[in-house]
Every structure is written in structure tokens, then in C-alpha cells.
Amino acid sequence: MFAQVIVFPWLSRKLGSLRTFWITLCLYPILYLFAPYLALLPEALRIPGLIVLLIGKVTFQSLSYPSLAIILTNSSSSKRVLSTLNGVAMSAASISRGFGPTVSGAMDSLGDTFGMSGLAWWTIAAVALLGWLPGFAMKEGNKRTYLLAKTMRRLRQTQALHTVLPAPARRAADPHRPHPCERLL
């Protein structure tokens, strides 16, 4: 909760959503690589080590999910496709959450067979590393650019209206609609 309410807004303001996502993308594999080695810690440090690991996981999750939601929303070409885009993203996330425990369970069994107790964690770290390929290829969309293009299009239409119609005729065409430049002042 602390990470999502306090850390994420500050970090997102300073670095942007995409860079915040990239930071978590880099830290997830490290977290998963260290997880099986908690068993090697002295018994007095295992629980504190597990707590640190879980706090890291929850913090990264609290930073990456809102970042992805913002990046996804900003990449939408219009509000009409946003619901479809969110639906596809949620479906893909649900499929991954469904396969994740199955694959890691199979890897854990395979690791037990070969005496490699960390195999499931190393597999998860490898999958997180594979996430770097599409993750670092992402570009952050900018809603301001879309809104600026829309405003410029309206301004050009208004300028075309100015060249075709004299001022009284423009007001008669739509008396309640203020001139776009009047709204800016």
C-alpha cells in the first residue's frame, strides 16, 4: 500500500511510467534468483530474509502494475478501443497467472528429481528475463500528442472557416460555440 500510494506517484512523476516499469523489470529476475538461497541463511535470518524478499516482490508489483496500466492507456489510439485493449491485456495476464503455478510446479518436481531445489525459481527468473525483450522494446505513448493533434485539427478547421465566412456569418453558424482561441485566453 505504501509503495502504491506514496512511492509510485513520486517515482512516476520523476521518471515516467515506462522507466518505472523498466526498473521493476530489471529487479524481478534478481529477486527470483535469490529466493532459493534463503534456505542457506542461518535459521535466525531465514524469516527476516523471507520478509525482505516478500516486501521486494510486493513493492515491485505495486510499481509495475500501475505503470503498465498507464502505458497501456496511453498507447490506445482512441477511447473506443480502450476497453478491448484492457480486455486483451487482462486475459493475457490471467492466462499467465494460470500457467505460472502449473509450470513452476512441474519445474519444482523436476528439480527434486535431479536434486536441484532451486530449478523452479531459476525458471521463473528465466521467464522474467525473457520479459526483457518486449519490455525494453516498449515505447511510452503520449496522450498530450493525441490531444495536441486534435486541437490543431480543430484550429485548422476554424481557420478555414475564417477564410470562407465573414465574422457575422461565423457567429450565425454556431452562436453558442466560442472561438477556439477565445478558450485559450
Describe the secondary structure blueprint for this structure:
Layout: H1 2-15, H2 17-34, H3 43-75, H4 82-114, H5 119-130, H6 132-137, H7 143-164, H8 167-173, H9 180-184
Helix pairs in contact: 1-2, 1-3, 2-3, 2-5, 4-5
Helix content: over 70%
User: How many helices does DSSP assign?
Assistant: 9
Q: Which range does the strand content fall in? A: under 5%
Give the integer mean of the pLDDT values: 82
Tally of distinct domains = 2
Q: Pairing-aware structural class of the strands and helices?
A: mainly alpha
Q: How are helices and strands ordered from N to C?
A: HHHHHHHHH
Q: Distance N terminus to C terminus?
A: 41 Å
From the spread of the alpha carbons, the general shape counts as: elongated
List the uncertain runs: none
DSSP strand tally: 0
The biggest beta sheet reads: none
In angstroms, what is the radius of gyration? 25 Å
Structure commentary:
This protein is mostly helical and 185 residues long. The chain has two domains: 2-141, no CATH class; 145-184. The chain is built from nine helices and no strands. It has helices at residues 2-15, 17-34, 43-75, 82-114, 119-130, 132-137, 143-164, 167-173, 180-184. The longest helix has 33 residues, at 43-75. The model has no long low-confidence stretch (mean pLDDT 82).
